[in-house]
Amino acid sequence: MDPEPVRLPITDTLDLHTVPPRDARAITEEFLYQARLHGFRAVRIIHGRGIGVQREMVRAVLASTPFVESFSDAPLEAGGWGATIATLRLGPRPIHGATDSGLK
């Protein structure tokens, strides 16, 4: 039996440090979807510096997501090249005041 999905509050930041690599792509995709539904225009995805595998995966997801307008390294004070900032196009009707999502 599959375990119950873990519900996470949606903020403007996703930290992938605690996410198993096999789940990172799906979680990043769902985070972007939920962030858009919640009305965020900009998000920060912390992937770490390492050898760049997570960074490249995050950027591939961002590049293939139609509602991502742009993305770049975070400013130094927000993680530098260990994090990526993405600008999102808003969805049709943002959910305001939501504290929880179906992020798994």
How helical, in percent, are the residues?
25-40%
Tell me the strand order in the biggest sheet: 1-2-4-3
Report the total helices.
Answer: 2
CATH level 1 name? Alpha Beta
Shape: globular
Mean pLDDT: 87
Gyration radius, rounded? 13 Å
Beta-strand percentage range:
15-25%
Biggest sheet details: 4 strands, mixed
Q: What does it look like?
A:
With 104 residues, the protein is an alpha+beta fold. It has one domain (13-88): Ribosomal Protein S8, Chain: A, domain 1, CATH 3.30.1370.110. It has two helices and four strands. It has helices at residues 21-37, 53-64, and strands at residues 13-15, 42-46, 68-73, 83-88. A four-stranded mixed β-sheet has the order 1-2-4-3, covered by helices on one side. Strand 1 (13-15), helix 1 (21-37) and strand 2 form a beta-alpha-beta unit. Helix 1 packs parallel to helix 2. The model is unreliable at 98-104 (pLDDT under 50).
Q: Secondary-structure blueprint of this entry?
A:
Layout: E1 13-15, H1 21-37, E2 42-46, H2 53-64, E3 68-73, E4 83-88
Parallel strand pairs: 1-2
Antiparallel strand pairs: 2-4, 3-4
Helix pairs in contact: 1-2
Concise structural overview:
With 104 residues, the chain is of the alpha+beta class. It has helices spanning 21-37, 53-64, and strands at 13-15, 42-46, 68-73, 83-88. It has a four-stranded mixed β-sheet, covered by helices on one side.
What are the main properties of this structure?
alpha+beta, Ribosomal Protein S8, Chain: A, domain 1, disordered C terminus
